[in-house]
Amino acid sequence: MNNFPVIATVLSMVLGLSVTRLLLGLVTIFRIRRTSSIDWVPLVWALVLFITQLEYWWSINQLPSIKPTYSFPEFAFLVLLTLMLFLSTALLLPSRGEDEQEGLRSYFEKDGRFGLLAFAAFLTLGFVVNIFFLNSPIASGWAYSDVVMIVVPIATFVIRSRRVYAALTMLYLPFAMFDTAISLAS
């Protein structure tokens, strides 16, 4: 029996909530723009997360060609992967104007950067999927690229210097766009 419709439905529901949460965060920022300062760093990470959400949603369509049926533990792992993406978007941007009284930069430095840890967890779980579901060789270009993509959000979370974490953010954006272009082309 092909259980892909159940898997696709659950993953799409969580992804839909994730996209909604990110968009609501952007609406919150728009609404409080007159009273709180806007910061470009979390907005760049929001863009990266949005593109990642769309790319992941698109890749779900390839699941039946990779494997026609999934066990419950495999299903649970895919749900965990999707939940990490949701968590990253839920933490990155404020959901209420009260959360951002001191400005978006302050919110990001106090709370929003925790979304980067969840994003790194999503990318790490995706790395595991590539190895065990897709049987991709670990000694390959994609693996080295993925390691960089996992390390930069963690470094951005850990580093307190605005100059350094802003530079890491700017470094990550074109790297993520290139990675997305390569993965969608294949």
Q: Can you describe this structure?
A:
The protein has helices spanning 4-31, 40-60, 63-66, 72-92, 104-112, 114-132, 141-158, 162-185. The radius of gyration is 17 Å and the shape is globular. It is an all-alpha fold. It has one domain (4-185). The two termini are 28 Å apart. It has eight helices and no strands. It comes from Shinella curvata. Keywords: Membrane, Transmembrane, Transmembrane helix. The chain crosses the membrane at residues 6-28, 40-58, 70-93, 114-135, 141-159, 164-185.
Describe the structure concisely for a colleague:
With about 190 residues, the chain is an all-alpha fold. The protein is about 75% helix and about 0% strand.
